[in-house]
Amino acid sequence: MRYLVYIASANIFLQLAQESTIAIAEKCSKLEKKLNLHLGGYQQRAKALRTKMGEAAEALEKATSALGGFRTLSVSEEIAVKSRLEALREEVNYVSRREREAQEAYSRTKEELDMLTDGVNGYH
Fold this sequence. Notes:
The protein is mostly helical. 93% of the residues lie in helices and 0% in strands. The protein has one helix at 2-116. 0% of the residues are buried. The model has no long low-confidence stretch (mean pLDDT 91).
């Protein structure tokens, strides 16, 4: 009979333990759902931030590439400007020299004409 009392009390303790375990499991299930809700929000936020970081890195790479291209163009343009400026200066010097030579030739020709027509009124 003693064993029956022990068995009965053990069954009661077992039922209490099972009920307690079920209550704790239900509580844990509710907490797990709340945590999953929060975790899902954090995961979505992390995904959005990763996407934005990737886009920003891609934009930075494109901008860096464009900057390198523009720097190359700038250097090329500086060299080309110097070259064109030098060519224009040479052309101006050439034209100035030719104009001066033409003026001198005209002056000599004019003097020669004046000497040939000195004292003549232009009619023969």
